[in-house]
């Protein structure tokens, strides 16, 4: 048996829920179904502050049942394969669902297995990560136990969720060490696959000044490939053809390699890199016009953040509705994304920019300066806007 829905959405994350809310409300609501196996929905941007001891993990999640929009059918299953020529999706549970239009927004996957020696050691011996709900408490624990040695913060090769997050926890940790009189005993290292501290020139200059002022050791063009927990050594390959770098650590915050979910990579929807292949302005699939995608699993060449999703989804919904009516797709997404760069407790640089790396700022002051107001925005205002605005289709 095949069940049919006018609109089918893969994924109950930020993109999937906010798109569903917009489509299922308004003057002419459409029947919408979401395929999502998870019991919980997470507000992941706060995990930086959980790792820094500001909030508890529980503060960042709500039951999925509470965020599924009214009138939307929740299929608590896991998508497995696509048949776009026949407009259908099959789940791991063996059910097939047909659609008129499909929105693909399953997020991405964390590829912990690509780091040799890590398996079984997360949360032990100073190894920690803010990148998963079950690992983020280990960051705060490692930070509180740190007394001397090296604190390493890694940034892997390839696209990741929130490109600023690997350094946000570094800045918070460094500030914590200052506050507790431990900074002189600890060397802080930022080891990144990138070529600079940040990709947008305006914010890069501001962050480079902080690197110098706060005595951060930076290593660029380096990717974590191995952890030796018994020796407390991290091994980094060089992306420039140099010899591997081995650094001892007392604290090692790992940002894992990330990629599109395997079922996306193996599907006809994927591009050569495994992401859902969509036009970067319309968000419509390049080969299947009844398929759209937003969020982390899409091929959109911008930072993978909730702020980007907030601008992508209205464009996607407007174009999907136009497509249903046989009209031209006139809505256009220009790559807006935001990265609230926490630089300490009560300090934040708010980076906002587009596809071309041009600042697209929301406030009439220099957002490259550290401000408490922007920290308060991230910690208190944006979560409220997310839960009560964006996920309701209102923001």
Automatic annotation (TrEMBL):
One Gene Ontology term of the molecular function aspect: sulfide:quinone oxidoreductase activity
Entry keywords, A to Z: FAD, Flavoprotein, Oxidoreductase, Quinone, Transit peptide
FAD/NAD(P)-binding domain segment(s): 6-122
InterPro entries for this protein: FAD/NAD-bd_sf, FAD/NAD-binding_dom, Sulphide_quinone_reductase
Single GO biological process annotation from the record: sulfide oxidation, using sulfide:quinone oxidoreductase
Gene3D superfamilies: FAD/NAD(P)-binding domain
Cofactor(s) this protein requires: FAD
Pfam families reported in the protein's UniProt record: Pyr_redox_2
Record-given protein name: NAD(P)/FAD-dependent oxidoreductase
Upper lineage: Bacteria, Deltaproteobacteria, Bradymonadales, Lujinxingiaceae, Lujinxingia
């Amino acid at each position: 048996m095949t069940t049919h829905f006018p609109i089918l959405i893969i994924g109950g994350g930020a993109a999937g829920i906010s798109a569903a809310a917009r489509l299922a409300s308004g003057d002419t609501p459409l029947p919408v179904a979401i395929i999502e196996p998870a019991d919980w929905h997470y507000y992941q941007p706060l995990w930086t502050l959980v790792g820094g001891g500001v909030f508890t993990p529980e503060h960042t999640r709500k039951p999925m049942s509470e965020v599924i929009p009214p009138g939307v059918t929740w299929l608590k299953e896991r998508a497995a394969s696509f048949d776009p020529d026949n407009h259908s999706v099959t789940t791991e549970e063996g059910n097939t669902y047909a659609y008129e239009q499909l929105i693909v927004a399953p997020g991405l996957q964390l590829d912990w297995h690509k780091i040799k020696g890590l398996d079984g050691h997360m949360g032990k011996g100073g190894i920690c990560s803010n990148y998963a709900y079950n690992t983020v408490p280990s960051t705060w624990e490692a930070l509180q136990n740190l007394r001397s040695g090296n604190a390493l913060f890694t940034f892997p090769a390839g696209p990741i969720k929130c490109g600023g997050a690997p350094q946000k926890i570094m800045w918070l940790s460094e500030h914590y060490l200052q506050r507790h009189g431990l900074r002189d005993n600890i060397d802080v290292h930022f080891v990144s696959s990138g070529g600079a501290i940040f990709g947008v020139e305006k914010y890069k200059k501001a962050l480079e000044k902080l690197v110098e002022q706060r005595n951060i050791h930076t290593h660029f063009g380096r990717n974590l490939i191995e952890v030796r927990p018994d020796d407390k050594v991290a091994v980094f390959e060089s992306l420039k053809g140099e010899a591997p770098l081995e650094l001892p650590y007392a604290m090692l915050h790992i940002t894992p390699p990330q990629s599109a979910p395997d079922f996306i990579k193996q599907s006809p929807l994927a591009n050569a890199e495994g992401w859902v292949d969509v036009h970067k302005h319309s968000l419509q699939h390049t080969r299947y016009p009844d398929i759209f995608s937003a969020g982390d699993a899409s091929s959109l060449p911008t930072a993978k953040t909730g702020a980007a999703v907030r601008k992508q989804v209205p464009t996607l919904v407007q174009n999907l509705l136009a497509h249903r009516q046989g009209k031209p797709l006139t809505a256009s997404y220009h790559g807006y994304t935001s990265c609230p760069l926490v630089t300490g407790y009560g300090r934040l640089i708010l980076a906002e920019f587009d596809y071309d790396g041009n600042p697209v700022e929301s406030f009439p002051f220099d957002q490259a300066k550290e401000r408490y107001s922007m920290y308060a925005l991230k910690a208190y205002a944006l979560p409220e806007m997310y839960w009560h605005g964006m996920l309701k289709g209102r923001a």
